[in-house]
Amino acid sequence: MSKRIQISRHGGTEVLEWVDHTAPQPGPHEVRVRNRAIGLNFIDTYYRSGLYAPPRLPSGLGLEGAGEVEAVGNAVERFKVGDRVAYAGGPLGAYAELHVLPADKLVGLPDSISFEQAAAAMLKGLTVQYLLRQIGRFQGGETILFHAAAGGVGSIACQWAKALGVKLIGTVGSPEKAERARALGAWATIDYSRENVASRVLELTDGRKCPVVYDSVGKDTWETSLDCVAPRGLLVSFGNASGPVTGIDLGVLAQKGSLFVTRPTLAGYADTPERLQAMADELFAMLADGRVRVEIGQRFPLAEAARAQEALTSRRTTGSTILLP
Ligand SMILES: NC(=O)c1ccc[n+]([C@@H]2O[C@H](COP(=O)([O-])OP(=O)(O)OC[C@H]3O[C@@H](n4cnc5c(N)ncnc54)[C@H](OP(=O)(O)O)[C@@H]3O)[C@@H](O)[C@H]2O)c1
């Protein structure tokens, strides 16, 4: 018997239950992982609230973790008991001491990267990999806008953009977060709680605006983000921290300058074991030589996942947050 966080209904953090749970024997293509550290992500709050639907209830929660392989199915060849591994994708249930998942969802963890670093960087770092390296395809010298730059994904994006020679303008909700984002490599910051983002972007880009705008805040920033995209540029809408974007009038893309919009997910980019491994290799290389450092701003016991989610949704966290079993 082990312990996990489970939800039986949707709602606020009060629906998170700390329960006894028997992790199943792995199926032929599955692996059972003893988690040593678990990543907290905004998407976990969407599955809790019901914005995203888990396949069934009761359901485990969480998509990111790192630990040791404890058991393998008889068709698994890539991993053996004792291997250090990490993951950043379904099935839900990473908020647990033991988690069973398909071997295809795992990557081997280099010895140079600790379990805590991996749990803090896998989902957010792979996200930044596809946002900046697969969607962005930058040459260096571009100026981009990236919302919530002091958060988990944002902290990695500031550093990775700098390493690519891309000038990242980061939005943040306080002067302390602005300082933090600049220290991590943001070229400039805008405090969207008090400044006009579109005017500041015009000033900072000499009227040119940005070829790519990355928006994970959603409802509150959608309109502003469109105003910051250069003609024929791209708005990457990749999250809903303030609520989902709904009811889009396509004509607005014509009016604002023949714009492109994409709504990507990590699962859509890391959709084969080979692509997942290639993305992870690139992330691990960035971590290994220090071009990206993992900023663990908060640690909570796994049993206190509710307190961790409250801190995240009330904008009291910076960098990554991990849960410790
Ligand atoms: N599509 C994908 O593949 C993918 C993958 C990973 C993450 N994401 C998305 O990326 C975003 C960041 O994820 P994360 O886990 O790293 O979280 P995070 O950035 O650490 O936390 C979210 C941040 O958003 C800002 N924010 C703005 N309005 C907010 C509001 N009304 N409520 C709460 N926060 C608000 C806050 O920063 P300020 O105080 O500075 O405003 C907050 O710290 C989330 O939207 C997540 O869903 C998408």
UniProtKB/TrEMBL annotation:
CDD domains: QOR2. It comes from the Bacteria. The keyword Protein transport does not apply. Keywords: NADP, Oxidoreductase. Residues 11-323 form the Enoyl reductase (ER) domain. This is Quinone oxidoreductase.
